TrEMBL record, chain A:
<dbReference type="Pfam" id="PF04114">
    <property type="entry name" value="Gaa1"/>
</dbReference>
<feature type="transmembrane region" description="Helical">
    <location>
        <begin position="568"/>
        <end position="589"/>
    </location>
</feature>
<dbReference type="GO" id="GO:0042765">
    <property type="term" value="C:GPI-anchor transamidase complex"/>
</dbReference>
<protein>
    <submittedName>
        <fullName>GPI transamidase component GAA1</fullName>
    </submittedName>
</protein>
<dbReference type="InterPro" id="IPR007246">
    <property type="entry name" value="Gaa1"/>
</dbReference>
<feature type="transmembrane region" description="Helical">
    <location>
        <begin position="20"/>
        <end position="41"/>
    </location>
</feature>
<feature type="transmembrane region" description="Helical">
    <location>
        <begin position="413"/>
        <end position="433"/>
    </location>
</feature>
<feature type="transmembrane region" description="Helical">
    <location>
        <begin position="361"/>
        <end position="384"/>
    </location>
</feature>
<keyword id="KW-0812">Transmembrane</keyword>
Automatic annotation (TrEMBL), chain B:
<keyword id="KW-0812">Transmembrane</keyword>
<feature type="region of interest" description="Disordered">
    <location>
        <begin position="253"/>
        <end position="272"/>
    </location>
</feature>
<dbReference type="Pfam" id="PF04113">
    <property type="entry name" value="Gpi16"/>
</dbReference>
<protein>
    <submittedName>
        <fullName>GPI transamidase component PIG-T</fullName>
    </submittedName>
</protein>
<feature type="transmembrane region" description="Helical">
    <location>
        <begin position="527"/>
        <end position="551"/>
    </location>
</feature>
<dbReference type="InterPro" id="IPR007245">
    <property type="entry name" value="PIG-T"/>
</dbReference>
<keyword id="KW-1133">Transmembrane helix</keyword>
<feature type="signal peptide">
    <location>
        <begin position="1"/>
        <end position="24"/>
    </location>
</feature>
<dbReference type="GO" id="GO:0042765">
    <property type="term" value="C:GPI-anchor transamidase complex"/>
</dbReference>
Amino acid sequence: MPRLLSSALALRRDPRILKIPPYLSLLCILVGAVWLFLLPLNEYSRRTYISENALLPGQVHTYFGGSDQNVLRAYKQEVNSLVGKSNVEINDKLESIVKGLGLKTARQNFTYSAAGRTFEGENLYAILQAPRGDATEAIVLVAAWENVKHELNKNGVPLVLTLARYFKRWSLWSKDIIILLSPDSIAGPQAWVDAYHDAHDSSRVASLPIKSGALQGAIAIDYVQEHRFKSVHIVYDGVNGQLPNLDLINSVVNIAGGQMGMGVALQEMWNHNDKYPDRLRTMLRGMLKQGLGLASGPHSSFIPYHVDAVTLQPFGEGWQDEMAMGRVVEGTFRSLNNLLEHLHQSFFFYLLMHRERFVSIGTYLPSAMLVAANFTIMAIFLWMKSGQPEVPAASTPESSDKDAPTPTAERDLFLPLAVVALSGSLSVIPLYVFNHVPESALTPLFYLFLVINTLLPISISLTTTKLFSPTLQQYHLVKSFSLLLLGMFLSSLATLNFSLAMLIGLLSAPLSFVKPYSSPVSRIVGYVLLNLTSPPAVLLASAAIWGLNVGDILREAAVAWHVTGTTSAVVVWCVWWPAWLAGSVCVLGQPAGQEGKVKRA
Amino acid sequence: MRQLFSFFLLSLVSFSSLVSSTSAAAADYHEQLVLRPLPLSALLASFNFRSNTSLSEFEAHNFRFFPRSLGQILQHAGTQELHLRFSLGRWDSESWGARPWDGAREGGTGVELWAWLQATTDEEADHKWLTLTNALSGLFCASLNFIDGTRTTRPVMSFQPEGDHLNTTAADTHLLYGVLPHEVVCTENLTPFLKLLPCKGKAGIATLLDGHKLFDASWQSMAIDVKPICPVGGECVLQIELTIDMVLDIDRSKRPRDNPIPRPPPGHELPCNTSKPYHSQDTCFPTDHQANQDWTLSQIFGRTMKGICPLTDPTIPPVCLHVPDSRSVYHSDGVLEKKNLDRVSRCFEIKPDVDFEIVLPAPEDESAVVVKPETPLLYAERSFTGHGQERGGVQTILRNPSPDTEVEFIYMESLPWFMRIYLHTMSARIQGQTAKNESLIQEVYYRPAVDRARGTQLEVRMRVPPASTVFLTYDFEKSILRYTEYPPDANRGFDVAAAVITILSPAAYSLRTTSLLCSLPTPDFSMPYNVIIFTSTAIALAFGGMFNILVRRFVAADEGPEVGLAVLKKRINERVGVLVEKFKKGKGKKIETGVGQATGEVNDPSVETGVAKE
């Protein structure tokens, strides 16, 4: 035993052991990335199932149809006659229809300003009081006048009106049904949900004059196409990558796919053959949307308030008509109506790769955690390295083994901490600027920022070299602290928004391996390469790949920041960017008194 | 035979009432059904059954019209006045106007019970209350026995006795109030209710009470009120009043029971607005369903009324209908229609043993379908504000519709103990003004909660100026329950009882808000929780190991000071060696000195090293 221990200790002193962490770190990244690609396999994913027995999806007969279609046609005529009119005129007409059904109606004004634009409008909503209920619970049916792509919801609004009239006839509702008709798909529902929970800024968003009980679920209908459809597309991404309870999606899949015999698609995968490539693509699209954290439909605003919601979009050429869509909604509402408790049984953290296949957090989380762990490992490694004396012992290993343990070098912490703190505090500037300048200034400002971003590390590096002439140890410490922070933030973020943590983790992986280069050529090459993975460069590259305008992306981000409270910008500017800045400073570093030593090594 | 019997009874009753009218209002009984069509195809049906028994007969256990089962409970529990409510649904005062009986005969959702008990001490009152709730629980098949200390309050301002309590002082009369908001009122509560009636459900207006219809109502309230009444100069009587109010949806009630599914009607039966330009065979803008006010009694209640209860006071008409006089109403034979002087109501006198039926055809005059309901004195709406599992707020919106009269009332909340309210956050403000208005709240009575023992009781005397809306808000904190305290459906949330609003001026009126559903932090031992635990454990282990390696200085055993078992062993060896040496020295000093020296030599270096290293 003592022999084993002493040999282990000898091994610890072995310089080879200190070479392991970078490889371990690389291994973590590789395993993390490969892990992700294993998930769509049958062995790692699971079939979905209904966890909440009370839902009983598809177990009821649906009766929406018959002469209700005549009513729908009439409402469609009414809605068509409103096209092009102002928000208030539309609401006047819709309110008169809904009031005629015997529902209580109310309106709400809202004004948001973001990126120099003003988003204002008036929500109209109606409460169908549960016939024997007492206003303790409610479910919401949403139809925005136009969808996220600004197409008129020409079939959705009449369908919701007809459904309201149909639902009014039933006496079995245990929860109030709220019909929300908002002028747009993002700001309107957001204002309404905020005001419903009294989390609104009353200077911009009006309070709701009438309310019902606790919201238990919401279904939004985005039914733009005029002709008959083939299947239903479920949009489920919430703001900041939050997801609705999987039971809700499963119920819709069960009702639309099983009971109604129409297909269900996810993540714009219109034809899904349930093979590996399609599953992977669905999953990656889902992750990308989750990572961006933008609102993807009227349902998105509900999810942060723990109200499970999805948007249903009919698509494709088929033989299903509006009545079939209405029956899907009816079936889903009957299921939600059965709920005795708030949806809580099934998963809130999952990745869907097919309508009947998913991986849960327990399976996918390790990949993001491994990627985040690589930063922590490197940070610890660098801390240890910085503690070793700068001049390596010239004596042979045998003699050092017999010596007293090598003394820990004094660490000079002030400069590294100052650099990390500086990069962290500088990050507030882009966060503020990009969220507060008008739309027209966004594109020029972005290119200006790109230039500044390229020059900033150089200037910081030059200044520090000139003023403090930092040692290699200090560069190690700068990198150690910044990676420690990055690893910490990303591992916590992985539990909240896995996809964002994974994306940022992979994009900032090169930061683990940068170091001050001795030769000017490798220093410049390293800096150029690192610049390719800088946040603005990645933004530019992704804009080019998807054929978007950078200004549009930034505008959407600013709107999301102000309206829906998307926090992805905070992660990009305040977590990723400072780490990148510190890494760049390290790459450009010229440690004092390094020349001779590097040659010797 | 039956006719003869009822005639005999009737004459007996009328005879007795004739006889007793001079002496005192002795035992009598009457029942009445008031039908009041409301806007939006609703119909309010108020059943009222009232019987008196003289206090002396009651005390002598001589029950006549007074139900014996209830009477004995009241006597046993020393109850002087009792009010019990079973309610379901909500009264839509925006459409239906003022509440029936000025709100005096209704409760919040679930079960509500308040009573004045005779007891000398609080403990005795509590004991009697326990007896009363348990006995009533058995009688009415309701979970009234769950009204324990946490759900019982002693209102100070809100409730005043309705009866005349002569020979009692305030000191020995205790008012206790309990409420069960989660109790679902159902047919099992109706059956015992009907059994309290002198005619049960066999004759009279009670024959119309059918569980299917009653519990399909949009709003219904069953009330039992027992109180002593002492007319001036007369003998005191104990009065029991049983009231059932329900608002029926005419459309829904007219559906046949064997086919209650609201299938879409055939296209040609759909009432359409033909004036629309696009109107055609397959396009139909439906006309408002509001005009649906043609109904018959048997359609609404599923059966006709079977005669009248022979015990009832014949001077009071058993059925009254509140429709404008201009509307024509058809009724069955043997019924006498009497229009009242107010021109908006009429009553029907029914001969015994006549099946009573009325038919209201679709009105010709659209303007005079229903009598316009009275505007209530106050509108109240209560809802939660905020979100999340830690804190919340309650906001009550109180609107006074009157243009010139100020309303003064008492707002009472009895909250469960796990809602810890912050009293300092309670404020009232008038809509349109940002600052809170101090003069709105006039008096506050607050009795804080005690965890697991007592709920919060809050009574606020306040006023709402004419034609204004007041927001009463306060914040609260949600406490975490012990895991055994969660009900099986913990994720549903916890019901919070309705607030009771008792209006003092300009007129006596009371109303209840709807109940609320408060979601508490609920432990979830399912997947995400496990994942978090597992990841935290893994990180803690990894971090712990890593940290240990980082901060600890490792040296080989031969380099560092000796610690652990080896040293202990060595020391023990040492001591044993010394003992052995001593023993040997003492035993054979003369013979084996050499050996002793030798052992000493062996031991000495280790002792030295041991000391040196310490």
